[in-house]
């Protein structure tokens, strides 16, 4: 199995992944939101590039059938139902509704990966569940970290390392690119200390400074969500039954 | 001190570093060549973008006054005196001569960093000597890894981590970007095992497959060269006296 990790959405743009399974990671916070919303019963999550596109898309939908969510510079958007905190996507808000989500980095990474044969969204909440479905495809893998404002994001990279480890084990594999090797090593270093990691990183520090430190605690949980969000026709749908009993 | 690491030349292009000290790293092999050539008495090293530019630049120079060196896809260039193996830059070849060097990744990274207030080239051979001169500038720092064909290169990143560690110590500093934190951690993991690291990485494996494995052994040496190559007017000159006694 060939496995390549890309550090940012931009670094993957223009690449073709037709024969690959792709995993997109934006731990803080888009892919944590996606896992949580689907786990809490959302019908699907539609990622769109701009707030205007979100409003436009939902204009003719029945009023109670959807949730507009997202952020710009980590802050909620005027006129939207929810921001980009996964803790806002409660069962009573997300259950039975479609979520239209616009975020800065996560959406861009999903769009960069959409040529892939299969495309999944992962966060610490569901990384091992996603890895199992990725392995089941039998395909070579590409992992695209969303990054933060176009830059390397250590939290996303460590989560990518968890997926690499889940897919390859700790053994040396010659078919990993350099960032896949590094990501697996970095996950090894930060295993069990994800909260400390988040406080060490730019994006985590920024969320804390905005009073969103509780999101770090939430997003640092490993394997609490069984749902595997899979890309299907421009939206993310639960690939597994979210009502299945939890491990 | 603010310290940012960039993963590739491309990621730094378009940025301005006017108030910063910049360090460019291309361990395999441009910045190892530059350190070695200057240590062996080269007058300066002029990095140029293309082989044609190299030939053109030296056209009117006295025949015995210069050395044309470089590579494309790691292989020597037709009509050039030397390739891109630092072991070719012996005192009898490099001594007293100007070196015109054209390499794929290293030149691009140097050009991306040329807006910096001070600009240095580092490899494992001279990383701590370079770090001392960087610290002496008293400026915020940017480290630009050349990367390999536009991608994250683990060897360059680990060398960046050595520079970060030399500049900051092991303590947590809030003014490191995420890649600076990661690089320092990765250097900690690979300290004393640089040869194994190189064999694990794409670029090292490629050089081995081309029969250039001895270059890995050479480039994995730490602090064997006292010379600090400093950018001055489009070329790299020895910032310290290369005839000074070695540590």
- Based on CA inertia axes, which overall geometry of chain A fits? globular
The top level CATH class name of chain A? Alpha Beta
Lateral strand order in the biggest sheet of chain A? 1-7-2-6
* Cα radius of gyration of chain A in angstroms: 17 Å
Named CATH architecture of chain A:
Alpha-Beta Complex
Count of the separate structural domains of chain A: 1
Give a count of the beta strands of chain A, DSSP E runs of length 2 or more.
9
Our count of helices of chain A gives 11
Average pLDDT level of chain A? 93
CATH topology of chain A: putative 2-phosphosulfolactate phosphatase
Oligomer: homodimer
Work out the helicity level of chain A.
25-40%
Largest interface, and how many residues on either side? A-B, 24 and 24 residues
- Please trace the helix and strand order of chain A, writing H or E for each element: EHEHEHEHEHEHEHHHHHEE
Structural class determined from secondary elements of chain A: alpha/beta
The CATH superfamily of chain A is known as ComB-like
């Amino acid at each position: 199995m060939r496995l390549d990790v890309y550090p940012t959405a931009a670094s993957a743009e223009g690449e073709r992944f037709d024969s690959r399974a792709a995993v997109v990671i934006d731990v803080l916070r888009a892919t944590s939101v996606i896992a949580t919303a689907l786990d809490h019963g959302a019908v699907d999550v539609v990622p769109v590039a701009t707030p205007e596109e979100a409003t436009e898309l939902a204009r003719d939908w029945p009023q109670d059938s959807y949730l507009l969510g997202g952020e710009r510079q980590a802050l909620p958007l005027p006129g939207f139902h929810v921001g980009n905190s996964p803790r806002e996507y409660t069962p009573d808000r997300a259950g039975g509704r479609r979520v239209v989500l616009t975020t800065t980095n996560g959406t861009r990474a999903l769009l960069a990966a959409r040529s892939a044969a299969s495309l999944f969204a992962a966060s610490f909440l569901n990384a091992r569940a996603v890895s199992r479905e990725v392995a089941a495809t039998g395909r070579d893998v590409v992992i695209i970290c969303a990054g933060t404002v176009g830059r390397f994001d250590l939290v996303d990279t460590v989560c990518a390392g968890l997926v690499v480890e889940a897919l390859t084990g700790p053994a040396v594999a010659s078919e990993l690119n350099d960032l896949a090797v590094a990501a697996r090593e970095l996950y090894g270093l930060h295993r069990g200390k994800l909260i400390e990691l988040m406080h060490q990183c730019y994006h985590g520090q920024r969320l804390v400074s905005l009073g969103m430190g509780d999101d770090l605690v939430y997003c640092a949980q490993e394997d609490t969500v069984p749902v595997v969000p899979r890309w299907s026709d421009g939206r993310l749908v639960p690939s597994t039954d979210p009502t299945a009993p939890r491990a």
